[in-house]
């Protein structure tokens, strides 16, 4: 009787261990979820919204990503959320430039329909004026030492910006993000509007204007 009891419970416990292990591995290496902290991705992602993160996705221009800010932002303040959520603008080998309301990657105009005119213009100019590029940004003294004096996105790195650019602390201020520090690509839940899905999940399909 005791043997049968242990046998029954043993199978149940083994099954529970397998399920818990599978969930852990899924969260650690495949797919997890995070809560947005802050307003730097408005109007497309709002503070406290919960989204998924695909850890295995190949990162493309236009993708929204989550990364460890402690490894990338020299002015990161302890007590803040350790993760930033931003949009990939430049991938390895890209040039990035801004001229009077238009953003260019490799001299091709970027589609910015997902943000307002104010964010395309004054918001993007920020502290850097109506014309800037990676070279000029990298010589402001704000960037990490490893990223200074670069005119293209280095191998294994990405240039990111927030959608709410007038308030976003992003690549303009701290430089490039190492791929090893990126958790993965943001995927919005199925109940979000099609407009948000297009601007977050599928912006990589119509990145250029």
Supply database-style keywords.
protease, 209 residues, 11 strands, Pept_S26A_signal_pept_1, alpha+beta, globular, Signal peptidase I, four-stranded antiparallel sheet, Pept_S26A_signal_pept_1_Lys-AS
Tell me briefly what this model is.
The chain is built from six helices and eleven strands. By secondary structure, it is of the alpha+beta class. A seven-stranded antiparallel sheet has the order 1-2-11-3-4-9-10.
What do you see in this structure?
By secondary structure, this protein is an alpha+beta fold. It is 25% helix and 23% strand. The chain is built from six helices and eleven strands. It has helices at residues 2-29, 117-120, 122-125, 134-138, 171-174, 194-200, and strands at 31-35, 50-54, 64-68, 83-90, 96-99, 102-105, 108-109, 131-133, 157-161, 177-178, 182-187. It has a seven-stranded antiparallel sheet. Strands 7-6-5-8 form a four-stranded antiparallel sheet. A hairpin with a 2-residue loop joins strand 6 and strand 7. The longest helix has 28 residues, at 2-29. The protein is globular and about 40 Å long.
């Amino acid at each position: 009787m005791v043997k049968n009891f242990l046998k029954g419970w043993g199978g149940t416990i083994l099954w529970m261990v397998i399920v818990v292990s599978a969930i852990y591995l899924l969260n650690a290496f495949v797919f997890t979820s995070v809560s947005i902290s802050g307003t730097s991705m408005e109007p497309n992602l709002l503070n406290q919204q919960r989204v998924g993160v695909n850890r295995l996705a190949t990162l493309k221009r236009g993708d929204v990503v989550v990364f460890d800010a402690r490894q990338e932002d020299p002015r990161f303040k302890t007590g803040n959320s350790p993760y930033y959520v931003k949009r990939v603008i430049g991938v390895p080998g890209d040039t990035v430039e801004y001229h009077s309301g238009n953003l260019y990657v490799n001299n091709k105009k970027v589609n910015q329909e997902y943000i307002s005119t104010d964010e395309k213009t004054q918001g993007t100019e920020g502290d850097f004026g109506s014309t800037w590029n990676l070279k000029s940004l990298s010589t402001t003294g704000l960037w990490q030492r490893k990223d200074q004096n670069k005119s293209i996105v280095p191998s294994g790195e990405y240039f990111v910006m927030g959608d709410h650019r007038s308030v976003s602390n992003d690549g303009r201020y701290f430089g490039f993000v190492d791929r090893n520090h990126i958790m993965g690509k943001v995927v919005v839940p199925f109940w979000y509007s099609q407009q948000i899905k297009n601007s977050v999940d599928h912006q990589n399909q119509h990145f250029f204007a």
